[in-house]
Amino acid sequence: MPFQIAHLLFIALISLIACCTIMFVVWLWAKKIKNAGVVDVFWALNFPVITLITYFLSEGFETRKILICSIFLLAELRLGLHLWQRVIGHIDEEEGRYQQLRKEWGDKAERNFFFFFQFQAISNVLLAIPIFIITANPSPEISILEYIGLAIWAIAFIGEMVADQQLAAFKKDLENKGKVCDTGLWYYSRHPNYFFEWLTWMAYFIFALASPWGILAIISPAIILYLLTRVTGVPNNEEQNLRSKPEAYKKYQQTTSSFFLWGKKDG
């Protein structure tokens, strides 16, 4: 077991070096084009890099490795390509939340963005803990917990994809300029895409519970929940929406859950 833990730490270290290097190059590019929003794209695309490193270096049961690496790769490639279309499609225009950070940080913006980008690389590796644990599991049997994890993952994957498509379609309609998207899944939550992203990580945690040391995987949904609801997700998005459409968004806040999918509240 000590050897196995040492091997997991080795895989995590290689992954960290790879992610930090990628984010350093991305920071240089972001500095040149004055658009820090590209960090979102490569935060998602760092996970496929970690997946490949883990798959080839881990020593667990091959079928399980293929299963978890496939769904992890599929989810993060979908998210990365979605973000690529959103950010790269408007590469000359930095997203409002990053414009705001640039204003707040002033002449220290580029330095602070460097550390921000590196923090994203560190978060990539921390969030990948379930994958490190699962791919090290030598058991030749797929357990009921792993099947439950797969089922939850499928719901989360479809839910996030639908939420992203609904928002993209809403924004594409010029008649909706200045309005709030409150249809489909967005009727039940102000951030259904973030909710399903978190649910994806809960699925990995449940999947990991069937493996030795699997309880440690709780760190991933805990971190992603904190980041989405307290740091870079909901707070920044809410601030930007309140700046761009204050009255409509305040009304939306009064009637709709910020994260979980609940029924409407009285406004």
UniProtKB/TrEMBL annotation:
The family database entries (InterPro entries) matched by this protein are listed as: UstE-like
User: What domain of life is recorded for the organism?
Assistant: Bacteria
**Segments traversing the membrane:** 6-30, 37-57, 113-136, 142-163, 198-228
Q: Does the keyword Transmembrane apply?
A: yes
* Keyword vocabulary terms for this entry: Membrane, Transmembrane, Transmembrane helix
Mind telling me what this protein is named? DUF1295 domain-containing protein
